[in-house]
Amino acid sequence: MVKPFVPQLVYVEPRAMEYPLAKELIGKFEKMDIEIRETTSHNQIRNLPGENHFQKYRTAKSTLVLGIRKTLKFDTSKPSAEYAIPFATGCMGHCHYCYLQTTMGSKPYIRSYVNVDEIFDAAEEYMQERAPEFTRFEASCTSDIVGIDHLTHTLKRAIEYFGKSEHGKLRFVTKFAHVDHLLDAEHKGRTRFRFSVNDDYIIKYFEPGTSRLKERIEAAVKIAEAGYPLGFIVAPIYLHEGWKEGYKEMFERIEAALPAKATKDLTFELIQHRFTKPAKRVIQENYPMTKLELDESKRKWKWGRYGIGKYVYQNEEQEDIKDTLGGYINHYFPDAKIEYFT
User: Fold this and answer.
1) Of 29, 116, 153, 174, whose CB is crowded by the most CB atoms within 10 A?
2) What pLDDT score does 78 carry?
3) Using alpha carbons only, how large is the chain's radius of gyration in Å?
4) How many alpha carbons fall within 13 Å on the CB side of residue 246?
5) What CA–CA distances, in Å, run from 244 to 247, 279, 328?
6) Other Cβ atoms within 10 Å of 324 Cβ, number
7) On the CB side of 267, how many CA atoms lie within 13 Å of its CA?
Protein backbone atom coordinates (compact mmCIF):
# COMPACT_ATOMS: atom_id res chain seq x y z
CA MET A 1 0.00 0.00 0.00
CA VAL A 2 1.29 3.47 -0.90
CA LYS A 3 1.71 5.58 2.22
CA PRO A 4 0.40 9.18 2.24
CA PHE A 5 2.99 11.58 0.82
CA VAL A 6 5.45 13.18 3.25
CA PRO A 7 7.99 15.56 1.68
CA GLN A 8 11.68 14.90 2.26
CA LEU A 9 12.47 18.57 1.74
CA VAL A 10 10.37 21.76 1.91
CA TYR A 11 11.06 25.15 0.32
CA VAL A 12 9.09 28.28 1.18
CA GLU A 13 8.82 31.66 -0.53
CA PRO A 14 9.31 34.50 2.00
CA ARG A 15 5.98 36.15 1.09
CA ALA A 16 4.14 32.87 1.54
CA MET A 17 4.70 33.23 5.28
CA GLU A 18 2.21 36.15 5.25
CA TYR A 19 -0.54 33.53 4.80
CA PRO A 20 -1.92 31.41 7.68
CA LEU A 21 -1.71 28.16 5.68
CA ALA A 22 2.07 28.50 5.18
CA LYS A 23 2.62 29.21 8.88
CA GLU A 24 0.50 26.20 9.84
CA LEU A 25 2.31 23.88 7.40
CA ILE A 26 5.78 25.06 8.40
CA GLY A 27 4.86 24.40 12.05
CA LYS A 28 3.69 20.90 11.07
CA PHE A 29 6.88 20.16 9.07
CA GLU A 30 9.16 21.46 11.83
CA LYS A 31 7.53 19.01 14.26
CA MET A 32 8.17 16.24 11.70
CA ASP A 33 11.88 17.21 11.50
CA ILE A 34 11.70 17.91 7.77
CA GLU A 35 14.39 20.21 6.40
CA ILE A 36 12.95 23.62 5.43
CA ARG A 37 14.77 26.02 3.10
CA GLU A 38 13.93 29.46 1.81
CA THR A 39 13.63 30.24 -1.90
CA THR A 40 13.10 33.54 -3.69
CA SER A 41 10.43 32.03 -5.97
CA HIS A 42 8.52 28.77 -6.30
CA ASN A 43 9.71 28.76 -9.94
CA GLN A 44 13.40 28.94 -9.00
CA ILE A 45 14.50 25.84 -7.08
CA ARG A 46 18.06 25.43 -8.29
CA ASN A 47 20.04 23.68 -5.56
CA LEU A 48 18.22 20.37 -5.27
CA PRO A 49 20.40 17.62 -3.79
CA GLY A 50 21.64 14.89 -6.14
CA GLU A 51 24.75 13.88 -8.08
CA ASN A 52 23.07 13.55 -11.47
CA HIS A 53 19.78 14.11 -13.33
CA PHE A 54 18.35 10.77 -12.17
CA GLN A 55 18.93 11.55 -8.48
CA LYS A 56 17.81 15.18 -8.76
CA TYR A 57 14.60 14.16 -10.52
CA ARG A 58 13.73 11.75 -7.73
CA THR A 59 14.60 14.32 -5.05
CA ALA A 60 12.36 16.86 -6.81
CA LYS A 61 9.45 14.41 -6.77
CA SER A 62 9.66 14.29 -2.97
CA THR A 63 10.11 18.07 -2.54
CA LEU A 64 7.24 20.40 -1.60
CA VAL A 65 7.39 24.14 -2.30
CA LEU A 66 5.01 26.55 -0.56
CA GLY A 67 4.40 29.53 -2.79
CA ILE A 68 1.95 32.18 -3.89
CA ARG A 69 -0.04 31.79 -7.08
CA LYS A 70 0.48 35.23 -8.64
CA THR A 71 -1.35 34.58 -11.92
CA LEU A 72 -5.03 34.41 -11.08
CA LYS A 73 -6.13 34.27 -14.69
CA PHE A 74 -7.40 30.71 -15.02
CA ASP A 75 -6.76 28.62 -18.11
CA THR A 76 -9.75 27.32 -19.98
CA SER A 77 -9.92 23.64 -19.20
CA LYS A 78 -10.11 20.29 -20.93
CA PRO A 79 -13.43 18.80 -22.13
CA SER A 80 -14.54 18.30 -18.55
CA ALA A 81 -14.83 21.89 -17.24
CA GLU A 82 -14.84 25.57 -18.17
CA TYR A 83 -11.72 26.52 -16.18
CA ALA A 84 -8.70 25.00 -14.48
CA ILE A 85 -8.38 26.18 -10.86
CA PRO A 86 -4.76 26.23 -9.67
CA PHE A 87 -4.25 24.98 -6.11
CA ALA A 88 -1.08 23.00 -6.80
CA THR A 89 1.38 22.05 -9.54
CA GLY A 90 3.26 18.78 -9.77
CA CYS A 91 2.78 15.26 -8.47
CA MET A 92 4.59 12.75 -6.30
CA GLY A 93 3.56 9.82 -8.53
CA HIS A 94 6.00 8.33 -11.03
CA CYS A 95 3.68 7.55 -13.96
CA HIS A 96 5.96 6.94 -16.92
CA TYR A 97 3.56 8.33 -19.54
CA CYS A 98 2.46 11.49 -17.67
CA TYR A 99 2.10 14.67 -19.75
CA LEU A 100 3.25 16.74 -16.76
CA GLN A 101 6.77 15.46 -17.46
CA THR A 102 7.03 17.75 -20.47
CA THR A 103 4.87 20.62 -19.22
CA MET A 104 6.84 20.78 -15.95
CA GLY A 105 10.17 20.28 -17.70
CA SER A 106 12.96 21.06 -15.28
CA LYS A 107 10.57 21.73 -12.36
CA PRO A 108 9.15 18.34 -11.35
CA TYR A 109 8.87 19.38 -7.68
CA ILE A 110 5.43 19.83 -6.12
CA ARG A 111 4.13 23.35 -5.54
CA SER A 112 1.24 24.09 -3.21
CA TYR A 113 -0.22 27.61 -3.32
CA VAL A 114 -1.08 29.14 0.05
CA ASN A 115 -3.08 32.20 -1.11
CA VAL A 116 -6.23 30.09 -1.24
CA ASP A 117 -8.71 32.89 -0.52
CA GLU A 118 -7.34 34.93 -3.44
CA ILE A 119 -7.82 31.90 -5.71
CA PHE A 120 -11.43 31.61 -4.48
CA ASP A 121 -11.99 35.34 -5.13
CA ALA A 122 -10.78 34.90 -8.72
CA ALA A 123 -13.10 31.88 -9.12
CA GLU A 124 -16.00 34.01 -7.87
CA GLU A 125 -15.36 36.55 -10.64
CA TYR A 126 -15.44 33.81 -13.28
CA MET A 127 -18.70 32.49 -11.82
CA GLN A 128 -20.30 35.96 -11.86
CA GLU A 129 -19.38 36.43 -15.53
CA ARG A 130 -21.22 33.25 -16.50
CA ALA A 131 -24.15 33.43 -14.05
CA PRO A 132 -26.85 32.15 -14.01
CA GLU A 133 -25.07 29.28 -15.86
CA PHE A 134 -23.01 26.92 -13.72
CA THR A 135 -19.23 27.21 -14.04
CA ARG A 136 -17.22 24.02 -13.56
CA PHE A 137 -13.66 24.21 -12.24
CA GLU A 138 -11.13 21.41 -12.77
CA ALA A 139 -8.64 21.20 -9.87
CA SER A 140 -6.29 18.56 -11.30
CA CYS A 141 -4.99 19.85 -14.63
CA THR A 142 -1.45 20.32 -13.32
CA SER A 143 -1.35 18.11 -10.23
CA ASP A 144 -2.87 15.25 -8.31
CA ILE A 145 -4.30 17.49 -5.61
CA VAL A 146 -5.57 14.60 -3.45
CA GLY A 147 -1.97 13.39 -3.12
CA ILE A 148 -1.01 16.36 -0.89
CA ASP A 149 -4.37 17.31 0.60
CA HIS A 150 -3.99 15.23 3.77
CA LEU A 151 -1.28 17.81 4.58
CA THR A 152 -2.76 21.07 3.24
CA HIS A 153 -6.57 20.55 3.36
CA THR A 154 -6.82 23.10 0.52
CA LEU A 155 -8.99 20.75 -1.50
CA LYS A 156 -11.28 20.17 1.47
CA ARG A 157 -11.74 23.94 1.79
CA ALA A 158 -12.44 24.18 -1.94
CA ILE A 159 -15.06 21.41 -1.77
CA GLU A 160 -16.87 23.29 1.02
CA TYR A 161 -16.43 26.64 -0.75
CA PHE A 162 -18.10 25.34 -3.93
CA GLY A 163 -20.70 23.53 -1.81
CA LYS A 164 -21.83 26.97 -0.59
CA SER A 165 -21.47 28.74 -3.96
CA GLU A 166 -24.51 29.54 -6.06
CA HIS A 167 -23.06 28.94 -9.54
CA GLY A 168 -19.92 26.85 -9.07
CA LYS A 169 -19.04 23.18 -9.34
CA LEU A 170 -15.71 21.49 -8.67
CA ARG A 171 -14.09 18.47 -10.30
CA PHE A 172 -10.78 16.71 -9.89
CA VAL A 173 -9.24 13.31 -10.50
CA THR A 174 -6.80 11.27 -8.46
CA LYS A 175 -4.75 8.08 -8.41
CA PHE A 176 -4.48 8.19 -4.61
CA ALA A 177 -6.69 6.54 -2.01
CA HIS A 178 -5.98 8.93 0.88
CA VAL A 179 -9.50 10.36 1.05
CA ASP A 180 -10.62 9.84 4.66
CA HIS A 181 -10.30 13.51 5.64
CA LEU A 182 -12.62 14.46 2.72
CA LEU A 183 -15.51 12.19 3.68
CA ASP A 184 -17.16 14.67 6.07
CA ALA A 185 -16.72 17.74 3.82
CA GLU A 186 -19.97 19.58 3.14
CA HIS A 187 -19.91 19.13 -0.61
CA LYS A 188 -23.70 19.53 -1.19
CA GLY A 189 -23.34 17.41 -4.35
CA ARG A 190 -21.38 20.20 -6.12
CA THR A 191 -18.07 18.28 -6.41
CA ARG A 192 -17.58 15.36 -8.77
CA PHE A 193 -14.85 13.16 -7.33
CA ARG A 194 -13.17 11.12 -10.08
CA PHE A 195 -10.64 8.32 -9.85
CA SER A 196 -8.15 7.57 -12.58
CA VAL A 197 -8.25 3.80 -13.10
CA ASN A 198 -6.44 1.30 -15.27
CA ASP A 199 -5.89 -2.41 -15.53
CA ASP A 200 -3.38 -4.15 -13.28
CA TYR A 201 -0.71 -4.44 -15.98
CA ILE A 202 -0.55 -0.67 -16.54
CA ILE A 203 -0.65 0.23 -12.84
CA LYS A 204 2.10 -2.31 -12.11
CA TYR A 205 4.51 -1.31 -14.88
CA PHE A 206 3.78 2.37 -15.53
CA GLU A 207 2.29 3.93 -12.36
CA PRO A 208 4.81 3.47 -9.53
CA GLY A 209 4.28 5.60 -6.45
CA THR A 210 0.45 5.62 -6.79
CA SER A 211 -2.31 3.67 -5.02
CA ARG A 212 -3.08 0.25 -6.49
CA LEU A 213 -6.41 -0.43 -8.25
CA LYS A 214 -7.84 -2.25 -5.22
CA GLU A 215 -7.10 0.79 -3.01
CA ARG A 216 -8.56 3.23 -5.55
CA ILE A 217 -11.76 1.18 -5.78
CA GLU A 218 -12.02 1.03 -1.96
CA ALA A 219 -11.59 4.82 -1.83
CA ALA A 220 -14.24 5.27 -4.56
CA VAL A 221 -16.69 3.25 -2.46
CA LYS A 222 -16.04 5.53 0.54
CA ILE A 223 -16.55 8.60 -1.63
CA ALA A 224 -19.80 7.22 -3.06
CA GLU A 225 -21.06 6.42 0.43
CA ALA A 226 -20.24 10.01 1.47
CA GLY A 227 -22.71 11.14 -1.22
CA TYR A 228 -20.29 12.67 -3.73
CA PRO A 229 -21.13 12.41 -7.44
CA LEU A 230 -18.55 9.90 -8.72
CA GLY A 231 -16.66 9.42 -11.94
CA PHE A 232 -13.82 7.36 -13.41
CA ILE A 233 -11.23 8.40 -15.96
CA VAL A 234 -9.80 5.40 -17.79
CA ALA A 235 -6.45 6.78 -18.86
CA PRO A 236 -4.27 6.20 -20.60
CA ILE A 237 -5.97 3.36 -22.44
CA TYR A 238 -2.92 1.38 -23.51
CA LEU A 239 -2.86 -1.60 -25.85
CA HIS A 240 -0.82 -4.46 -24.45
CA GLU A 241 -1.08 -8.22 -24.68
CA GLY A 242 -4.31 -9.23 -22.97
CA TRP A 243 -5.67 -5.66 -22.75
CA LYS A 244 -9.28 -6.66 -23.43
CA GLU A 245 -9.27 -9.15 -20.55
CA GLY A 246 -7.39 -6.69 -18.32
CA TYR A 247 -9.95 -3.91 -18.81
CA LYS A 248 -12.87 -6.34 -18.51
CA GLU A 249 -11.59 -7.46 -15.13
CA MET A 250 -11.12 -3.84 -14.05
CA PHE A 251 -14.75 -2.96 -14.83
CA GLU A 252 -15.97 -6.17 -13.14
CA ARG A 253 -14.10 -5.25 -9.96
CA ILE A 254 -15.50 -1.71 -9.93
CA GLU A 255 -19.05 -2.95 -10.54
CA ALA A 256 -18.79 -5.59 -7.79
CA ALA A 257 -17.60 -3.02 -5.23
CA LEU A 258 -19.74 0.08 -5.88
CA PRO A 259 -22.98 0.60 -3.98
CA ALA A 260 -26.01 0.61 -6.31
CA LYS A 261 -26.79 4.30 -5.67
CA ALA A 262 -23.34 5.28 -7.02
CA THR A 263 -24.03 3.73 -10.43
CA LYS A 264 -27.00 6.02 -11.18
CA ASP A 265 -25.06 9.26 -11.71
CA LEU A 266 -21.73 7.81 -12.77
CA THR A 267 -19.47 9.31 -15.45
CA PHE A 268 -16.64 7.82 -17.49
CA GLU A 269 -13.97 9.68 -19.47
CA LEU A 270 -11.84 7.63 -21.86
CA ILE A 271 -8.39 8.82 -22.96
CA GLN A 272 -6.17 6.76 -25.24
CA HIS A 273 -2.41 6.70 -24.74
CA ARG A 274 -0.63 9.41 -26.72
CA PHE A 275 2.81 10.98 -26.70
CA THR A 276 4.74 13.81 -28.32
CA LYS A 277 8.35 13.78 -29.52
CA PRO A 278 9.51 15.98 -26.59
CA ALA A 279 7.59 13.74 -24.14
CA LYS A 280 9.30 10.63 -25.51
CA ARG A 281 12.70 12.23 -24.93
CA VAL A 282 11.88 13.22 -21.35
CA ILE A 283 10.27 9.84 -20.51
CA GLN A 284 13.32 7.95 -21.73
CA GLU A 285 15.59 10.23 -19.72
CA ASN A 286 13.56 9.98 -16.48
CA TYR A 287 12.61 6.30 -16.79
CA PRO A 288 15.36 4.70 -18.91
CA MET A 289 14.14 1.14 -18.19
CA THR A 290 10.49 1.79 -19.08
CA LYS A 291 8.53 -0.86 -20.99
CA LEU A 292 6.29 1.90 -22.46
CA GLU A 293 5.87 1.46 -26.22
CA LEU A 294 6.85 4.75 -27.90
CA ASP A 295 7.34 3.68 -31.52
CA GLU A 296 6.15 6.49 -33.82
CA SER A 297 5.92 4.13 -36.79
CA LYS A 298 3.09 2.20 -35.11
CA ARG A 299 1.05 5.33 -34.43
CA LYS A 300 -1.02 7.96 -36.20
CA TRP A 301 0.02 11.61 -36.15
CA LYS A 302 -2.62 14.02 -34.86
CA TRP A 303 -2.44 17.80 -34.56
CA GLY A 304 -3.22 19.10 -31.06
CA ARG A 305 -5.19 22.17 -30.05
CA TYR A 306 -2.12 24.35 -29.63
CA GLY A 307 -0.29 23.37 -32.79
CA ILE A 308 1.63 20.60 -31.03
CA GLY A 309 1.29 17.23 -32.73
CA LYS A 310 1.00 13.93 -30.91
CA TYR A 311 1.12 10.25 -31.72
CA VAL A 312 -2.14 8.37 -31.07
CA TYR A 313 -3.36 4.90 -32.01
CA GLN A 314 -4.32 4.07 -35.59
CA ASN A 315 -8.00 4.58 -36.56
CA GLU A 316 -8.93 0.90 -36.43
CA GLU A 317 -7.27 0.53 -33.01
CA GLN A 318 -9.20 3.55 -31.74
CA GLU A 319 -12.47 2.02 -32.99
CA ASP A 320 -11.57 -1.24 -31.23
CA ILE A 321 -10.88 0.64 -27.97
CA LYS A 322 -14.18 2.56 -28.22
CA ASP A 323 -16.23 -0.53 -29.04
CA THR A 324 -14.59 -2.71 -26.39
CA LEU A 325 -14.53 -0.29 -23.46
CA GLY A 326 -17.86 1.30 -24.43
CA GLY A 327 -19.35 -2.20 -24.51
CA TYR A 328 -18.03 -3.01 -21.04
CA ILE A 329 -19.37 0.25 -19.60
CA ASN A 330 -22.80 -0.27 -21.17
CA HIS A 331 -22.88 -3.82 -19.82
CA TYR A 332 -21.67 -3.21 -16.26
CA PHE A 333 -22.97 0.37 -15.81
CA PRO A 334 -26.03 0.80 -18.05
CA ASP A 335 -27.02 4.10 -16.34
CA ALA A 336 -23.55 5.68 -16.61
CA LYS A 337 -22.62 8.45 -19.02
CA ILE A 338 -19.49 8.32 -21.20
CA GLU A 339 -18.50 11.99 -21.33
CA TYR A 340 -15.94 11.66 -24.13
CA PHE A 341 -13.33 9.47 -25.79
CA THR A 342 -10.18 11.20 -26.96
Assistant:
1) 174
2) 67
3) 20
4) 18
5) 5, 26, 10
6) 15
7) 19
User: Are 48 and 59 contacting, i.e. CB atoms less than 8 angstroms apart?
Assistant: yes
- pTM over 0.90? The answer is yes
Alpha-carbon separation of residue 116 from 99, 119, 206, 224 (angstroms): 25, 5, 33, 27
**261/182 Cα distance (integer angstroms):** 19
- CB-CB contact of 211 with 2 (8 Å): yes
- The count of residues in the chain is 342
Question: For residue range 69-109, what is the model confidence (pLDDT) as tens digits?
Answer: 998 888 886 677 999 999 999 999 999 999 887 777 667 89
Distance CA 56, CA 288 (A): 15
Three-class SS of the chain: CCCCCCCCEEEECHHHHHCHHHHHHHHHHHHCCCEEEECCCCCCCCCCCCCCHHHHHHHHCCEEEEECCCCCCCCECCCCCCEECCCEEECCCCCCCCCHHHHHCCCCCEEEECCHHHHHHHHHHHHHHHCCCCEEEECCCCECCHHHHHHHCHHHHHHHHHHHCCCEEEEEEECCCCCHHHCCCCCCCCEEEEEEECCHHHHHHHCCCCCCHHHHHHHHHHHHHCCCCEEEEEEEECCCCCHHHHHHHHHHHHHHHCCHHHHCCEEEEEEECCECHHHHHHHHHHCCCCCCCCCHHHCEEEECCCCCEEEECCHHHHHHHHHHHHHHHHHHCCCCEEEEEC
CA dist., res. 7 & res. 109, Å (int):
10
- Of 79, 78, 194, the C-alpha closest to 141 is 78
- pLDDT tens digits along 136-186: 999 998 999 999 999 999 999 999 999 999 999 999 999 999 999 999 999
Whole-number percent of the chain with pLDDT over 70: 98
